[in-house]
From TrEMBL, chain A:
Family: Belongs to the cytochrome b561 family.
Necessary cofactors: heme b
Compartments in which it is found: Cell membrane
PANTHER family assigned to the protein according to its UniProt record, in alphabetical order: BLL0291 PROTEIN (PTHR30529:SF6), CYTOCHROME B561 (PTHR30529)
SUPFAM superfamilies: Transmembrane di-heme cytochromes
Gene Ontology terms describing biological process: respiratory electron transport chain
GO CC annotations on file: plasma membrane
Domain Cytochrome b561 bacterial/Ni-hydrogenase: 7-176
Species name: Acetobacter cerevisiae
Topology with respect to the bilayer: Multi-pass membrane protein
Domain of life, source organism: Bacteria
Sections of the chain in a coiled coil: none
TM ranges: 12-34, 46-64, 90-114, 143-165
Protein name: Cytochrome B
From TrEMBL, chain B:
Cofactor: heme
Annotated Pfam families: Catalase
Positions of the catalytic residues: 64
Entries under InterPro entries matching the protein: Catalase (IPR018028), Catalase_core (IPR011614), Catalase_sf (IPR020835), Catalase_SrpA-type_pred (IPR024168)
Protein name, as recorded: Catalase-related peroxidase
Annotated PROSITE patterns: CATALASE_3
Amino acid sequence: MKPIPAFSPLARVLHWLMAVMILSMLFIGIFMASSLGPSYHRLVSLHRPLGIAILVLALLRLTYRLRHAPPPLPNDLPAVLKLAAKGSHILLYALMIALPLVGWGMLSAGGYPIPLWGNAVLLPPILPHNPAVWSWLRSIHTVLAFTLFGLVLAHIGAALFHGLIRRDGVLQSMTGRKTPL
Amino acid sequence: MAAKSTGPSGSALRWLGVAAAPAALALGFLWAGGWLSPNRVTQNRLMGELHDAGSYGQGFRRAHSKGVCVTGRFDASGAAASVSKAAIFHEQSVPVVGRFALGAGQPYVTDNPATVRSMALRFMPKDAPEWRAAMNNPPVLPLRDAQDASDFFSSQRIDPATGKPDPARVKAFGAAHPWLQAAAEKNAHRVITSGFADDTYHSLDSFLLVGETGTKTAVRWAMVPVQLVAPADTAAGGRDYLFQRLIADIHDHPLQWHMVLTVAGPHDAVNDPSQIWAQDDRTIDAGTLTLSAVESEDGGPCTGLTFDPLVLPPGIVASADPILQLRSGAYMRSFSLRSGEKRGPSAITPAMTQAPAAESEKKS
Ligand code: HEM
Ligand code: HEM
Ligand code: HEM
């Protein structure tokens, strides 16, 4: 069997950079939203710009992805798994874009000023002031964040399944390591 | 399958490898969310404690539930311009939306002069970020941090037998928090004024003002009434008499307050709102607040937002006072909960805030 070619260096850098950012954001989010402690405000102030950075990177990454086909999955991968891989990747992209937009939109609807950096640089509101929409989007932000977390866990499990059980070179296509384990 | 067989034990180890990373992350997530730390004071726990202490909920603020909206303006005196670059300390006629409220969590509670009274303000300068401030009438806060607040609200839990907090629990809270005693005593001996219009409202928490050159000045502030101060009546009025008096006063003439900043002296505790500051601290009269119109919360401009004390403009930053963090998180949670609930009419209806004539009829 021919080894699978690797993702391009740019695709790999974006993947790993965003993996670290998204995992950090999920942990910062869940921690701060349950917290009333001394780091609450600092974390919220970090959560907003980091989330917006993820939005920008995700849009760049999606544009790049639509122009550069990824390496093919192994031929012998069962069709269901291929479908699951494809579907989960689409969902991951969708959530990387939707979650920060919901975060931004909910604070807009809540009538909050949305500082991006310090308290002088503000984001403009993207939704009109509407408290019912604020409350609804605030719940949606939680639901989407938990969905993303579940999906990331499954994704990591799948990547390790490729790397440790199937050893079919899919994990290496993203780590960039040439020699199989 | 391309899997190379490595014997049963090797393959078990590999499967363990596959499961371990997601499992470890999931565990970390549970920890971060507080599910593994039952003693942590979380937002949900505090909301539960407020509920058990009698907060009504159902679309109303979890605290300070009975209120009215007011509007007016703020005119800087210029005296604070050198210590803070915030637009509010430099400009004239800054539009203000505010809210007067009773501190209790019950939107239909009977007015009582001894109940904490509050003034919340949203300053909206034309070309600068807004500032939100929420102030109470006691001069000092008998709470130091999130743990104190959680202990306090759980000591206020309503005993179903009496419909009141259990006095033994209230006493036990005092005994277990001797560091709050001085503040509690100061509040117990405060002057109780006749109504909203002649009351003084305190920031309680401390903030840092940032000057043009980056200088930082720790302050607390108070809104000090221009109206003559009268002591509270001894005879109680009707259910809404304090609000009715406020409405009549505003319809009669605009109400004014001076924003008086108190600059922390060398021995004043900036990061602990339960500490009383020295009597001889320098003060700055930063400007005058003028409130000229009053509206019901139903449809009024103060309902669909929260007066989060950490919504700050350039020129004002939070001090390390832990109560500020607690309030910011709690206000956001209260705001998202209430905004998703169906809400009954406010005690102070649009009809009551509109017509001074109807208002005076009710009094008789
Ligand atoms: C990929 C991006 C993002 C991720 C993964 C993420 C994740 C999370 C998570 C896990 C929570 C906790 C939810 C809960 O337990 O209820 C949360 C809360 C929150 N997020 Fe995000 N978020 C993202 C982007 C944003 C953005 C862009 C904003 C605002 C501009 C934002 C604003 C908030 C706010 C205000 C909260 C609530 C804090 C509180 O309740 O005290 N998020 N986020
Ligand atoms: C927050 C974390 C992560 C996110 C959001 C994420 C997202 C994604 C997405 C969207 C793809 C599809 C790439 C494309 O087709 O354009 C992908 C591929 C991949 N990811 Fe991740 N990833 C994360 C973490 C990880 C981790 C921790 C690993 C390794 C343990 C990993 C391993 C892989 C591998 C091997 C591929 C290639 C799969 C294939 O060719 O079909 N990812 N990732
Ligand atoms: C220490 C623990 C405190 C807790 C747990 C707490 C909690 C709350 C909550 C849940 C609300 C309702 C927010 C909303 O739904 O918009 C509220 C409102 C308010 N709080 Fe606090 N608070 C605390 C301390 C303080 C302090 C120290 C002050 C004043 C200096 C203050 C002044 C106010 C005012 C004025 C409002 C009403 C705002 C309005 O009229 O909308 N609170 N508080």
